Amino acid sequence: MALTTRRRALTTLGAALAGTFTLSAQQASAGERQRHPSPLWRAHAHNDYDHQRPLFDALGHRFGSVEADIFLVGDQLLIGHDASELDPSRTLESLYLEPLAARVKAHHGSVYRGWRRPLQLLVDIKTEGSSTYLELDRHLRRHPHLFTRYAHGRVHPGPVTAVVSGDRAARVPMEAQSERRAFYDGRLGDLGTSAPASFIPLISDNWTQNFSWTGHGAFPDAERRKLRSITGAAHARGQQVRFWATPDSAGPARDALWSELLAAGVDYLNTDDLAGLEAFLDAHPSA
After folding, report:
1. At residue 33, does pLDDT exceed 60?
2. What are phi and psi of 152, to 5 degrees?
3. Which CATH entry fits the domain spanning 38-282: 2.60.120.10, 3.20.20.190, 3.20.20.70, 3.30.230.10?
4. Which residues, if any, are the signal sequence (predicted)?
5. How far is CA 257 from CA 196, 225, 253, 264, 276, in A?
6. Taking CA atoms, which of 71, 126, 175, 261 is between 20 and 30 Å from 35?
């Protein structure tokens, strides 16, 4: 009887220890998630280079997309919004490509450790598109394992997906390539055309030129239907949707507009307010 009682006690102790171990593992896992919350894939850092720490501020706020404006000066791609503010030390290579390559190497193949989904790097060309794109292509090829690649009809995902926006003349040399490390940012006029998502994965356009609503009052039903028609058509073709020039001043109107964009399935919310969009998306976890 004493032996049986002892065995029962050991069994009970083992179960208790197992339960404690399971709880501790769950707590540790929750702690990891708290320290490394999920990236905010729908967050787009507009004019990212204007922040105190280009790229790193956006990554610190867990953004899934960043935007860099480039000017071709000689054989350098300088970062800035206007030609008057260019600085030879602020290049696409130094502010974005080299830091991304180092981060991906440190994280064993991804921008966000443990997440294989690519970060989007939207490159907005401010000088003549064809010549600037050809120089951009040369820069991207210096990092052969960093970028999502299109080759002979197939897309090969990489840690970063470069999407070319801005001057539309970039489209000509891009379409002529059978292999490239960048994709084209379409406009609403490209929606439903023969260009596939393997060339135009993103449809972007100016919100104020397509919608009158700025978040104040009710969203007109006709505009809500139009918005959902746009996202539905894009998603049916494997494309994503982004609008620029959306209201970006903190307050109820911006929150109302962002909520409607999320509800309609818009893939990227455009902002200069990194902390504001991070807080909004954290408050809407289903997004």
Report:
1. no
2. 50, 50
3. 3.20.20.190
4. 1-30
5. 29, 14, 6, 11, 14
6. 261
